[in-house]
Specification:
With 188 residues, the chain is of the alpha+beta class. It has a 4-stranded antiparallel sheet with strand order 1-2-3-4, with no helix packed on it. The protein is globular, with a radius of gyration of 18 Å. The two termini are 27 Å apart.
Length: 188
């Protein structure tokens, strides 16, 4: 079991101000092409900050609590935790830019993580992140996402085909996580 799973909810962050890091991840991962274009046309930092605040306000799952946006709070916490636990010192890559970081930011902490102890001499190191997801009918299903570290430097590549949603998911549910089967068809 990973430390990542053990402390996934310890961060407490005030989401009123948009940090440069939060802005960059929001822009790269969440903004649509149209939103990126509109954002790029804004002249001042104040206008850009307001644009991002408005974005999160539109995506607030409980707008009746105007000072608290659980979606934005989870997003910022996941960025921080991805950077803390999933950065690659050897390759100077921030955790949020890694495949594991992106998965963590979108889907949150996995239910389980399985790791191999091997390196490039026997077989590549791998991690399998297991998510227990809710299907539309309410039944639960297990989805596994596999990451491989072919060079044994802590840089894991996602090898499972995943369709990333347009917004982070507070609790993993299908069909947000879509996995490619062995025959190349998409499984839901």
């Amino acid at each position: 079991m990973s430390i990542l799973l053990a402390i996934c909810f310890i961060a407490s962050i005030n989401c009123q101000e948009t940090s440069n890091l939060e802005l960059q991840v929001t822009y790269d991962y969440l903004f649509s092409v149209d939103e990126q274009t509109a954002y790029n046309l804004l002249a001042s930092p104040e206008e850009r900050n307001k644009f991002v605040r408005d974005y999160w306000q539109r995506n607030d799952p409980s707008p009746e609590t105007p000072t608290y946006n659980e979606m934005n709070k989870a997003f910022v916490e996941r960025i921080d935790l991805a950077n803390f636990f999933l950065s690659s010192i050897e390759e100077f890559v921030d955790g949020w830019k890694s495949d594991r970081g992106k998965v963590y930011i979108f889907f949150g902490p996995p239910t389980e993580i399985h790791r191999s102890p091997f390196g490039p001499t026997a077989e590549s190191k791998y991690e399998i992140w297991v998510y227990s997801v809710r299907e539309p009918g309410g039944n639960r299903k297990t989805v596994e996402l596999t990451f491989i570290d072919e060079n044994d430097v802590g840089s894991f590549t996602l090898v499972t085909q995943v369709k990333f949603p347009t917004m982070i998911i507070l609790e993993a549910s299908l069909p947000e996580i879509i996995k490619e089967t062995a025959d190349g068809s998409m499984e839901q």
